[in-house]
Amino acid sequence: MSTSVPVRLVLASQSPARRKLLQAAGIEPDVLVSGVDESQVVSDRAEDLCLELARLKTQAVRDRLRPSPDERTLVLGCDSVLAFDGEILGKPDDAADATRRWQRMRGHSGVLHTGHCLIDVTHESRAEAVASTIVHFADVSDDEIAAYVATGEPLAVAGAFTIDGLGGAFLTGIEGDPGTVVGLSLPLLRRLLAEVELSIVDLWTKVAPGGQEFEHLG
């Protein structure tokens, strides 16, 4: 499944966490923000909502690209939502909303769903799927919630928490791929790449994380 031309991955997301996750895995994406209005999509199922939003983001960026004969161009869009107590939770509206959520979530569990849509611009094909991970929240105090919300971190992320930032201390565990909670599942990305007849090693750069040189396997 290797390719004879360079593979360009365009990440249709402004999330620094998603980009950092890819970089740590040896993949250097280009970033192009989709500008999609997420409020336009409504669904009763968290899995359907996050996947539809991922599709819209990916397609919006794909429409702005023109494939080059000198490279194979892919666009990856992702979107995350938290399913908790029968509700679908995206980013909080404000600090008060984030505080209320944490007061409800503490000591309980939710499911973080991340939709992934991969479009092969060069070959006009696509692959998509949802990754889901169970998240267990610590029984944090009111003071801890107030301090966390005051940092602003929970206001910028789905579910009002992170696993790779300050919020990681307020989780007691997860069941599933931690990348899903960050916003991008690398094992799922590998499967989607296989569906468009590529290997994840085709996206590896010449320099591994930490600066070690390695030979490209693609």
TrEMBL record:
SUPFAM superfamilies linked: ITPase-like
Function: Nucleoside triphosphate pyrophosphatase. May have a dual role in cell division arrest and in preventing the incorporation of modified nucleotides into cellular nucleic acids.
E.C. numbers: 3.6.1.9
Localization in the cell: Cytoplasm
Gene3D superfamilies the UniProt entry points to: 3.90.950.10
Top-level lineage group: Bacteria
UniProt family annotation: Belongs to the Maf family.
Entry keyword Hydrolase: yes
Keyword Hydrolase recorded: yes
Active site residues of this protein: 79 (proton acceptor)
Catalyzed reactions: a 2'-deoxyribonucleoside 5'-triphosphate + H2O = a 2'-deoxyribonucleoside 5'-phosphate + diphosphate + H(+); a ribonucleoside 5'-triphosphate + H2O = a ribonucleoside 5'-phosphate + diphosphate + H(+)
Record key words, sorted: Cytoplasm, Hydrolase, Nucleotide metabolism
Species of the source: Micromonospora aurantiaca
UniProt name for this protein: Nucleoside triphosphate pyrophosphatase
InterPro entries for this protein: ITPase-like_fam (IPR029001), Maf-like (IPR003697)
Pfam family, one: Maf
Listed cofactors: a divalent metal cation
